[in-house]
Amino acid sequence: MIKIKKYTTLLLLLFSVSHAFAQSKITKDETLVTLKEGKIKGAILSSSVVAFKGIPYAEAPIGELRWRSPVPKKNWNGIKNAVAFGSRSPQRNSYDDMVFRSDEESEDCLYLNIWKPRVADGKSLPVVVYFHGGGFSSGDGSEPRYDGESMASKGVIFITINYRLSVFGFLAHTSLSKESKRGSSGNYGLQDQNEALRWVKRNISAFGGNSDQITIAGESAGSMSVSAQMCSPLSKGLFQGAIGQSGSVLGFEPPVSLANAEKIGAEFAKACGANSIDELRKIPTKELLKRSKDYWFPLTIDGYFFKEQPLITYSYGRQMDVPLLAGWNSAERSRNTILSNQKPTVENYKAGVEKLFMSKSKEILSLYPATADEQVAQLATDLSSDRFISYSTWKWIDVHSKTNGYPVYRYLFSRKRPAFIGQGSHNADVMGAVHASDIEYALGNLNLNKSYNWESEDFETSKVFQSYLVNFIKSGNPNGDGLPRWFGLQSSIPKVMIIDNDSKSIPEKNGKRYMQLDGILNP
């Protein structure tokens, strides 16, 4: 009897210990994460996703840190709340399709946001860091179209970041170059992105992420940023894959020399009435932004982030050797860029081409020939799209596919958005998928954009596009069960994936045109 009691007591003890252990696992606070710098607390969004917003990845670039390379965030005591988006970089004008969920603009803008699956089954999760678009002059990681909940629900950790824009992110000046240990200035926004990648590399394991399975991605200026990070010596080893949506730094307007960028900076400082960088640093944020409205601050061959022109880096295979998935939309730019809002006639088309391309207009017209008025709308759309961003994306894909050892996957997104709510029918003047319209489809966020009458075909297109991206993030290959087969460009017959409600891989059709255009632009 005594033995039975002992065994019963032992069993009860074992049960209580195991139950307590199980309970401790169940009640573990998934929203509390310990970083290298300190603790943060996020919020559960759904049964499958938890989010951490407004995490500082670098010191605020204000005061003496304005126009200096980002400084890693110092350690903090206590627990930082990470439930609201951090401030976005100051910006003069945002595009009509931009919706911000951050509360304010501030030079204190170096924050990132993380969405992660709640259950990881003990496995390290693949990670994607997404750079927002906006021409390096506007945009924010809080925009609903970049929301990461849908991507996280598919088993990846999704991250958006803010970085310095416009005059705050890209001003170069001789005095700034002199005070720098590296003798360079400019490209601070790109350096911010790089610092964010270093933060992710350091901290992502605390969220269950795999620091050796990081993909970078972005659209427009974000895609240009991806191509830039791939060829910067600062980025070696920080990521293992890349996704580009419409844009690269290998286009019509490549980065300028440091001397030219410093000249722009000197002219700007003079216009501001500043006799020194110290005086320029003392100008309030809003005033500085207002005074910069007539200036464009370009990417710069600064000798630090960029050692040489990106085209040279890619041509000699000195960029990061990573798999790439990239492409563009079927109507990136309106035909009116060529036609200047004139009727689509052959005469107006030729006049527009001559005005834009001047001495090269004859070669351009032979490449994009219009012999009848009914051809003009499509040709003008193709040419304006190529001039804007399609060619630069093609060039990046083409040269990387020839100088790296991993597959390169190219797409053409051609799903035309439905009509605006209340509009009734599609805009007949729009010739296809316009610039930036692919973002909600790719990231599974159609439901967050309330402006359009989304149709079942739109959701099907989104499902396919997002599945390709998720597969690529997880394995470096977009293919998967139930998806049309996507062939890499290194195959014997180069093919392009047409992404629409009837997605399919077809042989390359415009490669010859782009090669000829390349010869005109780079004789």
Strand content: 15-25%
Number of helices: 17
Roughly what is the average pLDDT, rounded to an integer? 93
Low-confidence stretches: 17-26
Report the span from N to C terminus.
98 Å
Molecular shape? globular
Which strand order does the major sheet show? Answer: 3-4-6-8-7-9-10-13-14-15-16
Q: Describe the sheet with the most strands.
A: 11 strands, mixed
Helicity range? 25-40%
What does this structure look like?
This protein is an alpha/beta fold and 523 residues long. 36% of the residues lie in helices and 15% in strands. It has helices at residues 2-26, 149-152, 166-170, 174-179, 188-203, 221-231, 258-271, 277-282, 285-291, 310-315, 336-339, 346-357, 361-367, 373-403, 439-442, 456-475, 511-521; strands at residues 32-34, 39-41, 43-44, 49-56, 79-81, 111-117, 125-131, 157-161, 209-219, 241-245, 256-257, 300-301, 324-329, 408-413, 495-499, 504-507. It has an eleven-stranded mixed sheet, with helices on both faces. A three-stranded mixed sheet has the order 1-2-5, with no helix packed on it. A two-stranded parallel sheet has the order 11-12. α12 crosses α13. The chain starts with a helix and ends with a helix.
